[in-house]
Amino acid sequence: MTNNPGIDLTDVELFVDGKHTEALEWLRAHAPIYRNEGGDGNTFWALTRYDDVLWAYREHALFGSARGAILGGSFRSEDDTAGNRMLVASDLPRHRLLKQQIHPALAASVVARVTEQVRVLIDAAVERMVAQGGADVATEIATELPAGALMVVMGIDHAEAHHLIGLTRRMVGFRDETFVDTGGDQKLRLAWLQAEIFEFFAELLAQRRTRTGDDLLSVLSRARLNGRPLSEEDIFYNCMNVAVGGNETSSYTACLGLEALIAHPEQYERLRQSPDLLPSAVEEMLRWGSVNAYVQRVVKQDVERDGVLLRAGESVTLWNVSANRDETQFPDAHLFDVGRSPNRHLSYGAGIHRCIGAPVAQTELLLLFERLIPISGRFALAGEVRRLRSNFILGTTSLPVEIR
Ligand code: HEM
Fold first, then answer.
1. Structural domain of residue 250, as residue ranges?
2. Within a domain: 160
3. 192: confidence class by pLDDT, cuts 50, 70, 90
4. Is the CB of 99 within 6 Å of ligand 1?
5. 349 lines ligand 1 (CB under 6 A)
6. Any idea what the CATH number is for the domain that residue 85 is in?
């Protein structure tokens, strides 16, 4: 069967129930360049094979980012104000200029300070968990990863970092009643959430005007693009990009990583016996979790691939979560293997937009699991695991565990 099987990748239930794995496997085998007729009125192409996804990431001249990475979400149409203003939603040459300006705020020296800050927070949180015999890892432990990163990158205190995490969590979880009231108009809700985030950054920016430093807001307020400063709105968009890019992804990967260890006790044991496997275990958690399920591109000029014509102006989605389970790239792709090597997963994307925060995420995840793995006793689930209602970010909103 190669005709349309009725799979709709905008159907959030598919992801909440975990049935997307099966659906994407079917698409890889039968319709790797799939025309998704979305129930929400969106029609787009879905690339699900590793080679096709990597091809589209690399062909940034054919596949533009100005429509934003999210389908039908906040940064949807090209006339949306975010197009070509925010790093992730910009094309060359502006993307290169913006990236040069943002990069110092995520440079190696910053990552070293993030490491120190995250270590302090994780030590305290894990100590509390051990004393209590367990915790909800999603809300009590994992959120300390982005909190530590934000404290350094944005130059804010712990309470402000958690306030900002609360705001971005609502934005990413805009369809989830854990975070927002899902009644009313979705577009209005998103606009409101974005305004709240901008307000937060506006206050910080006002403070930075008198007390400048090497944090992202200070760096962006000094930035010059073709000799001109960034507008305040452009500064807010790019701060939001870093916050949304970093707050949900690494903490949700941490949850999926721990859950995978609990579900695969032999891999958990292997890692306990051979802690030198930790770096490859973290890579496997990134592949396994594929928290950023897909990214969107827009076709810039007609292009044919395997007999399928993709027309200029159409939306194309690159499914990381599917490419990362492609057997042609990953032998026994359905197995969680902490020693997997090579492991060229696409969880951070690829090409010019490859995640600029990857070194921050790596240090966060390594620190956490370095601290969790040697704990005496074993982690076990202690209640219902709850998933974020999203097809874009595969999140875990509750992960109750106990130490047995
Ligand atoms: C496990 C953690 C993470 C995952 C899975 C992840 C995933 C991704 C992916 C797939 C992209 C590519 C988007 C595209 O091609 O359209 C991306 C870009 C980006 N990420 Fe991450 N990310 C993570 C952590 C972070 C962190 C910690 C930060 C910031 C501190 C961050 C900030 C960004 C930014 C600013 C971009 C845009 C880069 C560009 O367009 O050039 N991410 N991320």
1. 12-403
2. yes
3. confident
4. yes
5. yes
6. 1.10.630.10
Work out how many domains the chain is built from and give that number. Answer: 1
Does 321 sit in the ligand 1 pocket, CB within 6 Å? Answer: no
Q: Is residue 222 part of a domain?
A: yes
Percent of the chain at pLDDT > 70 equals: 95
What pLDDT shows up at residue 78? 45
Residue 1 lies in a domain: no
Residue of 346, 355, 364, 394 to mutate, ligand 1, most atoms within 8 A of C-beta? 355
Q: How much is the average pLDDT of 300-326? A: 97
Least-confidence region, from 129-133, 169-173, 278-282: 169-173
What's this model's pTM, rounded to 2 decimal places? 0.96
pLDDT for residue 177: 82
Compute the average pLDDT of residues 304-327: 97
In the structure, what pLDDT confidence band is assigned to residue 79 with cuts at 50, 70 and 90? Answer: very low
Cβ partners under 8 Å of residue 127, min gap 6:
none
What pLDDT, in 10s, does the model give residues 333-350? 999 999 999 999 999 999
Cα 351 to averaged position of ligand 1 atoms, centre (Å): 12
Q: State if residue 241 touches ligand 1 by the CB under 6 angstroms criterion.
A: yes
The reply to whether 6 falls in a domain is no
